[in-house]
Amino acid sequence: MTQTTEHVPAYTANHPAVPDRDSLQARIPGWGADLNKEDRPSVPKLKFLETGAWWDFPERQIEEWPRERSVEHRFLTPVFGTAQPPSGLSGVMRRFAYKFSEGRALHWLILLYADRVDAAEHHIRSMATLRPDNPITETGIKAEWTHNGMKSRVGRKRVDTHHIWLDPLIVGAPWLVAGAVTARLLKRWRAG
Asked: Fewer CB within 10 Å, N- or C-terminus of the chain?
């Protein structure tokens, strides 16, 4: 590590002098190892190979619905996924997130919350089917008692033991609330 007595910020007009290439190679082992193209492992990939492709740019996939596109990109990529089209409130949130730059935290926070909303929408939809989600098996609560879940945490200085008391509330509370709301609605329906 180089010792300097001057405390000059690196990104100002008065920044320290930039060392030349030879002094960097002499001082830092391996510096500039990829300057010679012949030493780069990716060089064969950078060479033009005759592949038989007849296009410079791939044919564009047809958009069946308006797709999300980052504001940093001029156009949508030629090929994109269509397995899970945005739908419901989570889809609206995702479309809104793409109005912001990918460099902003707001973009990613909206996408994270959209995933949580999407999960809630799927849980609600599953309750309307003949095979609703099973919170006991799908949340891993059963595995805590059958596969040494507690034993692996106690006495091992693990960080997740600090919030272990919150986990049942976070996982179970939405199910309890949904059950209470359903019971109240059924009670009103029967009374009315």
From this structure: N
